[in-house]
Amino acid sequence: MSVLVGKKAPVFNSKAVVNGGEIVENFSLEQFVGEKYVVFFFYPADFTFVCPTELIAFEDKAAEFAARNTVVIGASTDSEFSHWKWLQTPQNQGGIQGVTYPLVVDQNLSISKNYDVLIGSEEYDEEGNESFVGEPKAYRGLFLIDKQGVVRHQLVNDLPLGRNVDEVLRLIDALQFTEEYGEVCPANWKKGEKALVATQEGIASYLSEKA
């Protein structure tokens, strides 16, 4: 598993479905560099079971992400037509109608490979013939990218394990707090709570108050 934290987020240019139904040809994360924080997450497939609960949960918190100057972007190895159809399908029929953030197309698997979340892989036999082993789908990877385009947090879940959207918001708060104040955020820190200064005196003071 590649650790991308501290590195520039892999760049790509791909088709995507935006605004709940508009297909665009050249979507890239680079448009947000210098302007927005990005939550870029992968999910295994359209028209599945855990996936719609996650995508709808992110949409339900859209205003909270916007308040944090953060854009949410999903991606899977499905086609733009599959994304579009799923976005048009009512939620009570297993669809995600109402989701407005972009869904990126990764049919050639290159984005999933670059973020190292692809379940399967290409293998070669003794004669050099290529074949794909495993599923051409992505694990539930999530990457928090700062305004400089650098990955600051990553999480990868196996297929049955849905993510916690509130935890993603907490991490954005922590990142933005450290950027603004230069302090560090201890375990279970939440916005509005006291952080600590990264010195021996700072940690001693923090722990004594917690005791």
TrEMBL record:
<comment type="similarity">
    <text>Belongs to the peroxiredoxin family. AhpC/Prx1 subfamily.</text>
</comment>
<keyword id="KW-0575">Peroxidase</keyword>
<dbReference type="GO" id="GO:0008379">
    <property type="term" value="F:thioredoxin peroxidase activity"/>
</dbReference>
<dbReference type="InterPro" id="IPR013766">
    <property type="entry name" value="Thioredoxin_domain"/>
</dbReference>
<dbReference type="GO" id="GO:0006979">
    <property type="term" value="P:response to oxidative stress"/>
</dbReference>
<keyword id="KW-1015">Disulfide bond</keyword>
<keyword id="KW-0676">Redox-active center</keyword>
<keyword id="KW-0560">Oxidoreductase</keyword>
<protein>
    <submittedName>
        <fullName>Alkyl hydroperoxide reductase/ Thiol specific antioxidant/ Mal allergen</fullName>
    </submittedName>
</protein>
<feature type="active site" description="Cysteine sulfenic acid (-SOH) intermediate; for peroxidase activity">
    <location>
        <position position="51"/>
    </location>
</feature>
<keyword id="KW-0963">Cytoplasm</keyword>
<dbReference type="InterPro" id="IPR050217">
    <property type="entry name" value="Peroxiredoxin"/>
</dbReference>
<dbReference type="GO" id="GO:0042744">
    <property type="term" value="P:hydrogen peroxide catabolic process"/>
</dbReference>
<dbReference type="GO" id="GO:0033554">
    <property type="term" value="P:cellular response to stress"/>
</dbReference>
<feature type="domain" description="Thioredoxin">
    <location>
        <begin position="3"/>
        <end position="177"/>
    </location>
</feature>
<dbReference type="InterPro" id="IPR019479">
    <property type="entry name" value="Peroxiredoxin_C"/>
</dbReference>
<dbReference type="InterPro" id="IPR000866">
    <property type="entry name" value="AhpC/TSA"/>
</dbReference>
<dbReference type="Pfam" id="PF00578">
    <property type="entry name" value="AhpC-TSA"/>
</dbReference>
<dbReference type="GO" id="GO:0005829">
    <property type="term" value="C:cytosol"/>
</dbReference>
<dbReference type="Pfam" id="PF10417">
    <property type="entry name" value="1-cysPrx_C"/>
</dbReference>
<dbReference type="InterPro" id="IPR036249">
    <property type="entry name" value="Thioredoxin-like_sf"/>
</dbReference>
<dbReference type="GO" id="GO:0045454">
    <property type="term" value="P:cell redox homeostasis"/>
</dbReference>
<dbReference type="InterPro" id="IPR024706">
    <property type="entry name" value="Peroxiredoxin_AhpC-typ"/>
</dbReference>
